[in-house]
Beta-glucosidase BglX
Amino acid sequence: MKKIVTTTLLLTCFIAFSQQKTIDQKVDALLKRMTLEEKIGQLNQYTGDNAATGPITINPNKQSEIKTGLNGSMLNVLGTQHTRQYQELAMQSRLKIPLLFGQDVIHGYKTTFPIPLAEAASWDLDAMELSARIAATEAAASGIHWTFAPMVDIARDPRWGRVMEGAGEDTYLGSRIAYARVKGFQGKLGDVNSVMACVKHFAAYGAAIGGRDYNSVDMSERMLWETYLPPFKAALDAGAATFMNSFNDLNGIPATGNKYLQRDILKGKWNFKGFVVSDWGSIGEMINHGYVKDSKEAALAAITAGSDMDMESNAYRYNLAQLVKEKKVPIALIDDAVKRILRKKFELGLFEDPYKYSNPEREQAALNNPEHRKAAREIAAKSIVLLKNEKSVLPISKQTKTIAFIGPLVKERKQNMGFWSVELPEVDYDKHVISQWEGLQNKVGNTAKLLYAKGCEIEGDNKDGFAEAIAIANQADVVILSIGERRDMSGEAKSRSNLRLSGVQEELIKAIQATGKPVVVLINAGRPLIFNWTADNVPAILYTWWLGSEAGNAIADVLFGDYNPSGKLPMSFPREEGQIPIYYNHFNTGRPAKNENETNYVSAYTDLKNSPKFPFGYGLSYTTFEYSNLKLSKNKIKSTEKITVSLNVTNSGKVAGEEVVQLYLRDKVGSVIRPIIELKDFQKIKLNAGQTKTIKFSIDKEKISFYNANLQWVAEPGDFDVMIGSSSADIRLKDSFELLN
Ligand code: NOJ
């Protein structure tokens, strides 16, 4: 038996090796036939006819350039018909090198899933992998080869609008999610239902100063390696085919022209074999940064630093040939970039069939697949976070007679898609998305009377709708209020200095709360918002983010207890903007405050608590969980040994529910100081009422290692705290161990 397994394994390795060899040979053979212009053509990417996702450059010669092999890739071309049309142009070129179609398939293609930050709140890695898989299946059937996702930027600043696109503030959680998403998108590359992932934005884009998009980033090497790079490495370990660089400068050097990031770390130390695409126009933007004086210098800096493909700057198109002729760019650099791109085109099977992914029948089947909608509904429900539930206002009883549903987002459809959704021209998104109103109607049918009032707009100071809203609230047994951001208030270039509920929304909540009726507030947003009055006064709050196509049904499932909420915050929610950046895994300082009231000569604000309003990892359920019986298999270990941590979790409430059991560690003393608490593992478990499960975690050297002052990854002997919590601020069980010399 063993022999058979070994032989099969050897055979598989041999086949994989010979296939790879064939691809490399094919790439080399093709490269030999290419002129310099054709090579440079492979390094260009143009936007197509669909909505531009950046400042558009007009190129009237686009079509003829594709026909002459002067362009290798396009973005923003949607659907089998359009991708086919452009591919037909490429097939008229001398060498018939197929185009690569890239697209921002960030949280679904036609079936829209929750925004990535919302999905991260599910802490459900399988669900996130599945949503990426479905997005890939739909996009690939429409002719897309490549998604510009996942975004794995760690984000500790909710003023930055792009927090909606990532997995939040934590490196460990972010790395696990990055891995799952890459696996989901890519499946098995080359299969017709897979797309290449593009891990972005390399690197440290999430640390833009002041949370202002595109702003500079200034950080220590240790911070870069310890906090910002690991999710990229995890995505690479999952097999990510491509990377995108970034708009920001890092310590004075734009990421796009940053050799240290792209050549030394990514292609050097990490041995990345795929290719790097620039961000939209980011090669040309190095002129504005003041890093280069013109487009020619920009092209030189970018190609030298390791940016293989130019998205929309036209810097490579106009300058690379001249730079080669002037011997400023060695042809080997161009060849390397071209080979990286061609290799992917071969791996995708595009040379065998350039239309392989543009298949109308598959498109029709994939885009209208009811299973996809079912998954979208389930994942949306899992992404909702129950922030507060006093007096058991939730779940709403199905016997309730009259329900008032109030707010500017109740009847919206498209808003639920959030930022970075794909808008297919032929789809009417005003029909495609289940509104919250429709979701409620679907849920209650004729059993309850539903009343509706808009109350107010999302922005502006008009309170004319208040009276009607108060009137229907007075007639109802329970009131649900749906408020928050517009979908385009969080996203690219959507930084906000003020994170309060906009307009008169909080005043509307106050007016409705004053009726004395039980109130449930739904907060729809792409980022953590600040809503202190609501948090302190309203009995029930669900943070619903933006949930996608099935938003309305998923929200109704949670409101009525058909799904027991299980989401946990992937970012800390600040009390005031003045606390930002705010994150749970901070250092202790030399003068930590002993409690929230202590301010004198300690590290604290004199006018505000240090703690967030809602902490990282926090989220309630309709049931309760008890933690007990923490055991460590050893309390002293050598670095080669492992500790098994076990504990019991009991569902002590009356309904089934899911809990995210979180393992945190603290390294008490280090040669560089360590955070007061760090997430190092978690498990999401389901328990029936009364059920107990034993959970096991393993702690090994990897989990207790960190970058020392010389940037070496080490585990230092000494004492460690082990903390098991229901959130980063709700530690239920604690023990410690020692790492011996
Ligand atoms: C700019 C964004 O930063 C990037 O994430 C996106 O993929 C490109 N535009 C293409 O739309």
Residues 53-54, 75, 104, 148, 200, 279-280, 492 surround 1-deoxynojirimycin (CB under 6 Å). The first strand starts at residue 44 and ends at 47.
